[in-house]
Amino acid sequence: MSENLAATITAIRFEVWDVDAHAFGFHIRTLRKARGLTQEVLAERARLSADTIRRLEAGSFSPSMKTLVSLARGLHLRLSSIMLSFELGELPIERELLEILAGRSEAEARVGLEVLRAVFEHGLAGSRAPPASASASSD
C-alpha cells in the first residue's frame, strides 16, 4: 500500500471515530434547551445525576452506552436520532416528526395525525401555494 493511501485511510479513520467531547456536550445542551428542560429535569427524566448531565454537557467525559441510552430516554429521542443530528448538525424534519410520535399510544398518534391534517388542509401551517384550480384565472 502506498504511503499516501495509508495516510488517507488513517485520516478517514480518525475523522469517523474521533468525536470531540466538547462539541458533543454542546449538542446535548442544545437538544436539552430546545425541549425547555433544565439540567435537573433532564437528569430526573433520564434517571441520571444532575452532575452527570453537567459533566456531559461540559465535555469532560465520554459517556458509556448505558448513559447515552438513559440520556436519549430523558430527551424523548432515539439514540440514533441523537447521533444523526450530531453528525449532520441538525435533525431532519421527517425524523423530528417520527420522534414526536415515538412512544405514543395509537390513540395519541391518531390525534396528532388529525391535528396535522387539519393544519395543512386549512392553511394554518404558513404560506403555501394555492390549489391549481384556484390559480387558474376565470374569464
From TrEMBL:
GO cellular component: cytosol
Chain ranges of the HTH cro/C1-type domain: 28-82
UniProt KW DNA-binding keyword: yes
Keyword ATP-binding: no
Family matches, as Pfam families: HTH_31
Keywords, sorted A to Z: DNA-binding
GO MF annotation list: DNA binding; DNA-binding transcription factor activity
InterPro entries per UniProt: Cro/C1-type_HTH, Lambda_DNA-bd_dom_sf, TransReg_Diox_bact_type
PANTHER family on file: HTH-TYPE TRANSCRIPTIONAL REGULATOR, METHYLPHOSPHONATE SYNTHASE
The name this protein goes by in its record: DNA-binding protein
Organism the protein comes from: Plesiocystis pacifica SIR-1
